[in-house]
From TrEMBL, chains A, B, C, D:
Gene Ontology molecular function, alphabetical: lyase activity
SUPFAM superfamilies assigned to the protein according to its UniProt record, in alphabetical order: Acetoacetate decarboxylase-like
Pfam families: ADC
Family annotation (InterPro entries): Acetoacetate_decarboxylase, ADC_dom_sf
Protein name: Acetoacetate decarboxylase
Length: 269, 269, 269, 269
């Protein structure tokens, strides 16, 4: 009998691209809060979500340097299977009366992270992401976490730059970021290939993320700069900033072993 | 309204990791026919398929240097979105009384090919694949298609070598390969993350590939050598050869816009 | 005693990044002939070369899909060590009264090709290069070599697109390209790090390429389109086209085991 | 006039693969002290160095997660040009009566680091290196620096795994590592291609590293495990451990703008 949480399912269940949950994550984040054209934000929402009229166009861009593992943690001893970097954009929206966060575009640099994202409803593609790191030693190269320090993130896909963001730190942050704080809702989606069914996906459902062991540390805030570059086969640049908010740097950890399906969507949504 | 055949669905439908079918493919193939331990072959079959008792253990390993596009062919003018390389193993099996081909393990080097494979039921992971090419000029480096020429394929994933194959050409092949000739059946699979549902995938169905515009050319045959290396998190080496058959080099083209779901499988299969 | 043509030199001499010559090459070429701003061309010449006043600004951009090996050809059986792709720009210049070709900028996608280029005086950096391929089978994806077929090349470095070129084939070419035909002269250069010597390289010499076994085949010609994109840390876009010439597709093979040092340059050149 | 410290030299001097020194570095290190077969260590020494007879076979393997920049630090805002990972082996030797460190083999994952290494006499090739990171948040995925924590490094080149090392932390280290502590001596080497000169490199000199602003922090020590895997075209596995010493994790920063040439070597050395 074949075993394994994801393909390829195999006799011993060791070959799966994504092993079974729970999945544990730790990451260093750059969060750049901003506002895009409200019409552009409305245009990326699935029809089950509505624009957040009280603060239209509210977005955040996030660059994350991740490490992740399953319960046994064996990935940490073969870190090519544990580490990945990610760039994504979130927008705020309403689900009924509830303020939520929705992720229209996201890129990661490893296959297991792409597949694990799809399972959670993140619309991941592969990209190349780089993020300034801090080292705990005095050096011009160390990017220490001090007032005035600048941390940058870049993202690319298919050999095109997609984004460049810079956060300039000012001080420890009393409150942390807010644009990505509302509960996250995604759309899980898996197409059909049968003739006549290309517009009727096999999986098409609005989901609400669930997580546990959420921990946040070392939150600093300051100013933010962000460029989103138009490139063929991407539409993220329609969400380019019209106004910037604060920038943040922080460390975050959490775990995932569950997901709530909120609505089965009609195929035209 | 969001558009697009696959994630991310977007206002203009240009961002999808996989654009809508039809998909057209052309590839240079190395096909290495062999036999593995029959028990190992039986162990990779989904329960809807049975071992091919008349010739137990029959397998083939394939290295393919692909180029693909949609109808407009725009990917051919941005070839990072058209080209990919692939390594996969197929085994023979019975579906009822019908001899079929089944692919337990496959690696590709680009995200669009991974996602397009999942939609067709290929259990793709990312890898690094390299295949000797031929050039139409006399040179020691040109690997021209002549008797005695040797063509190699290598595959790796997560920085481990998975496979090394060599085909030594003898002559144009009157019949072409047979181990991968029976109709291809895959299992489309997409997991659930909801607690308690990890063993009940959202999509789990036996499918039969459909294609058109199939063209084959320049088939040569000769001898084959193949090594499959055991590595952590892979189980393909259980299908290592116990006996080699012929090796082939050929060029193949085909198109896909359909798929037949043959059975909805129970989750334990 | 340590052995090996290049670093790392080792007890058995097997570890060198570049094995000893001769080196054999076969490649599929896209050649895009054009003219840049003559001042921009003059500005990239070492002082030992002078602008080609009879046809100022004459350049070519080349995308090449290479396979290479040493005498034993073992690299062809481990093709990750044989294959690479390359994008480069050449300009025409005068050495005394002799019309020559000079390469100011070049990118390759493998380390052995970078190092082998430095040894020959090519100023190589790493990049990501993709080039449309042809397959010998009727398919929309096959890019067959026929009138009207379009072949593209792209180059990127540090996650920025550098160049996009397209050649549209018209007919077999009676004469082949001319902008890259004059003898190639490079500058071999290797810096010093000793304090006070940063401007006095250890190697700084004008060289003339030597090769043998030159073979060319399947030359087609047509029209050419080329974009060179300005990016940080690159200056190639100063050589962007002001006028396009013909485009070519061809296959070329040659071998190298020699180089002529023409002048030892002063460090300020 | 062309400008730039390294190729490609260009009108504005912005295109060089390696900008002019000083170069500033910060890195998180895993240092695995061990002893190899003394004959194997003697065999990798250039003839100007002699085996360290008082403690024969003494080696260390190092995995480093680097960030580097020039004085202006602009690379830190485009971190693809600042960050790289490195794996290298050092052996102890005598230069006259002086105990020194010599690096026979080293791999990095970025072109600027490869070229900058060559200039300093490090025999760099490209590889793929991964190193467990620590995150300052409680999580199973965070690999916090505590007694019992395990940090791993892996290295690969040409799709083959070269090395796997694990350090298990026990306690803050009072003294830090010693196998890599003696002054570093390298051999700068740049070949000739002129016929008859392949064995007479243009640059072949014993050099002594110079650095400033050396800072070390957060030194922990514990036990170490190391595997070096034999692969084609590499000879590092001859230096596999016969006995392990301590393992260390630490953060290190330093700057480089100078190098001392100690001896011009004869070509046969």
């Amino acid at each position: 009998m074949l075993k394994g949480y994801s393909v390829p399912r195999s006799p011993e269940g060791r070959a799966s691209i994504v092993p079974a949950p729970p999945w544990h994550y730790a990451g260093d984040f750059l969060v750049l809060e901003y506002w895009a054209n409200p019409e552009a934000v409305a245009a990326v929402l699935p029809s089950a979500l509505k624009p957040y009229h009280k603060d239209p166009g509210r977005c955040a861009a996030l660059f994350v340097d991740w490490q992740s593992c399953t319960d046994e943690g064996e990935e940490l001893l073969d870190p090519i299977r544990a580490q990945y970097r990610e760039f994504f954009i979130v927008v705020n929206a309403l689900y009924g009366d509830e303020l939520v966060t929705y992720c229209p575009y996201i890129w990661v640099d490893r296959d297991f992270a792409l597949a694990r994202g799809w399972i959670q409803g993140f619309p991941k593609k592969l990209g190349s992401i780089h993020i300034t790191r801090t080292y705990d030693v005095p050096s011009r190269a160390a990017s220490q976490v001090v007032p005035g320090a600048r941390f940058a993130g870049t993202a690319a896909a298919n050999d095109h730059r997609l984004a460049h963001g810079v956060v300039t730190l000012e001080k420890p942050s009393p409150d942390g970021p807010t644009h990505n704080a509302p509960p996250l809702m995604n759309v899980r989606h898996f197409p059909r290939l049968a003739a006549g069914q290309h517009d009727h996906p096999a999986v098409h459902e609005l989901v609400r993320a669930r997580s546990f062991n959420r921990e946040i540390a070392n939150i600093w805030e300051g100013t933010a700069e962000l460029q989103l570059y138009p490139v063929p086969n991407e539409e993220h640049a329609a969400l380019a900033p019209v106004r910037m908010g604060k920038g943040f740097r922080l460390t975050f950890g959490y775990s995932v072993d569950d997901l709530e399906t909120v609505e089965y969507l009609r195929s035209e949504e």
